[in-house]
Amino acid sequence: MEKFEINILGCGAALPTPHRFCSMQVVNIREKLFMLDCGEGAQIQLRRSKIKFSNINNIFITHLHGDHCFGLIPLISTFALLGRTSTMHIWGPRGLIKVFQPQLDFFCQGLSYKVELHEVDTHTPQIIYEDRSVTIETIPLKHKMPTCGYLFREKELQKHIRRDAIDAFGIPVSQINNIKAGMDWTSPDGEIVPNHLLTIPADPARSYAYCTDTVYKPDICKQIQGVDLLYHEATFSNEHKVLATTNYHCTASEAAAIAKQANVKKLMIGHVSSRYKDEGVLLREAKAIFGETTLANDGICIKL
Amino acid sequence: MEKFEINILGCGAALPTPHRFCSMQVVNIREKLFMLDCGEGAQIQLRRSKIKFSNINNIFITHLHGDHCFGLIPLISTFALLGRTSTMHIWGPRGLIKVFQPQLDFFCQGLSYKVELHEVDTHTPQIIYEDRSVTIETIPLKHKMPTCGYLFREKELQKHIRRDAIDAFGIPVSQINNIKAGMDWTSPDGEIVPNHLLTIPADPARSYAYCTDTVYKPDICKQIQGVDLLYHEATFSNEHKVLATTNYHCTASEAAAIAKQANVKKLMIGHVSSRYKDEGVLLREAKAIFGETTLANDGICIKL
């Protein structure tokens, strides 16, 4: 199975705690690394994680609150000190350039590599990144400022070759890629061997949706329908539902309601307010609505 | 003895490591807290330290390289989330306002307290802060950009009362402060008791000099002559002396030469380059010139 992993480096809300850094994750798809948000201390968490973080070429910021982006300029500075040469692409909502270009100009003069800032549309879902393995699209969210989540869709995988069948029919190595791609095999004496005898179906393509910060916004369910994993903010418990709405955040129950309506395979809740001594309350409230829920923790790695 | 403590929260150079955060310290003088530099993760280190950091009202930045100030805006944001109301004063070289005012305007809108940015002269020593316990003055340093260190001079302490003598002469409580301040005592029947019979001399006033980042700059020795503790940058070992000079940094030997020439009581070296697997080399080189040297470490507290 090709790699598709999500490394949680920080999953706290606005206030970091000794156990939770602010929002940041690294998605590893077939050894391509994508960073999601970049809270304070990102470079510290990256070092701790053993991720080969010099391979990160794209960082996606959901919105320009400090707990989602204070680690960006320090990380960019450190990359330069480490001698980076490859271009870094930073993606984020309107305002990204106005806020970060002056900081780049001041703190990152004479950088050893290029940093390109890309502002994305937060109103309509758009594919903003595509390569051979994955597409990444924006998920319009609603918070105190322009905000979007990000949806990773793995591209169709190739079929697996049945080594025994290839040997039995004496098929040359040069034809393997064609057969993986679905072609039948015609032997030198004209016999046609159908593809299904030579291959095992491909693993289903996987998908991951990252949705934080946002009010309860059920109109995202269509876009994220059936994803393998949904990370959704769950800043508050039911007890603080009014506070959640006032501050454009969600309760754990609301996150679970999105998961249920979107029929996702698994839900992970995060962006947990530091007020909860017993964070289990959030997990219990979510699980009451959507059983396949887990609570994010700094340092964990989820393999899809 | 009144409190005069230096808490080292970070003492690494440009690149933080798992063991060393970037530059930051908290000086506690009679329960007044002063922060020196504010590297990335300052709020994380402050929480770990058990310092009552809401009591910090003054932060002194040596220069505007990121490893000395990336933690500032996140810390200011967090203070607001914690409901701070007292004014915070930030001191630093020319450029402070240009760099940080836009970030304050963007990330810290509607703050619950005032933040005042004060630019200081980095060319001539100046007393920039004074209260009943301490004066704080700038120490002109030389680095790639305007830079100054900070010198804390405790004010003269009061004499200690000899409780036994006070009792023996029947001196009323109302006179204690006068006697602490040096007055003799005249009894109701005209007998004069000289002050030295009633008091024990005050503890000597203490001083602390914080000098980072800088090239070898012996002209600071006059200003910091005889301080109880000098914290001086020692980014490189003798092996990398050329690199030190090129980058406007010091070797450990140069830091020790300053300590010796300034006749300080103790030297602590810090701002150690992350390149040294064996940091002991820096300590050994410094101690060869100035015996009373220690190497800074994150989390330690030095009591003067």
Mean pLDDT of chain A: 95
Regions of chain A with pLDDT < 50 over 5+ consecutive residues? none
Largest sheet of chain A: 7 strands, mixed
Sequence of secondary-structure elements of chain A: EEEHEHHEHEEEEEHHEEHEEEHHEHEE
Major β-sheet strand ordering of chain A: 6-5-4-3-2-1-18
Compute the separation of the termini of chain A in Å.
Answer: 10 Å
Please bin the fraction of helical residues of chain A.
Answer: 10-25%
How would you portray this structure in words?
The structure is a homodimer of 304-residue chains. Chain A has 304 residues and is α/β, with parallel strands linked by helices. In chain A, 24% of the residues lie in helices and 29% in strands. The first copy, chain A, has helices at residues 42-49, 66-69, 72-81, 96-107, 163-168, 176-180, 195-198, 241-246, 252-261, 280-287; strands at residues 4-10, 24-29, 32-38, 56-60, 88-93, 115-120, 127-130, 134-142, 146-154, 160-161, 185-186, 192-193, 199-200, 207-211, 229-233, 266-270, 293-295, 301-303. In chain A, the strands form four sheets. In chain A, strands 6-5-4-3-2-1-18 form a seven-stranded mixed β-sheet. In chain A, strands 7-8-9-14-15-16-17 form a seven-stranded mixed β-sheet, covered by helices on one side. In chain A, helix 10 links the parallel strand 16 and strand 17 (293-295). In chain A, helix 9 runs parallel beside helix 10. The N and C termini of chain A lie close together (10 Å). The relative contact order of chain A is 0.14. At the A-B interface, helix 1, helix 3 and helix 4 of A face helix 1, helix 3 and helix 4 of B.
